Amino acid sequence: MGVRMGRGRQGLLDQLAVLPWPVGLAMGVLGFGVIRYGIPAWLSGQGGPLTQGLAQSGAFQILAWIFLALCAMAAAASFLDARRKRRLLDAQSGLASIAALDWRDFERLVGEAFRRQGHVVEESGLGGADGGIDLILRKDGQRTLVQCKQWHRRKVPVNVVREMYGLLAHHRAHAVRIAALGGFTRDAARFAADKPIELIDGDTLFAMIRSVQAAPREVGTASPAAPPPVHARIEPVLHAPSAPEPATPDCPRCGVAMVERTNRFTAATFWGCASYPTCRGTR
Question: Which of 14, 106, 129, 222 could form a disulfide with 5 if both were Cys (CB 3.0 to 4.6 A apart)?
Answer without folding.
Answer: 14
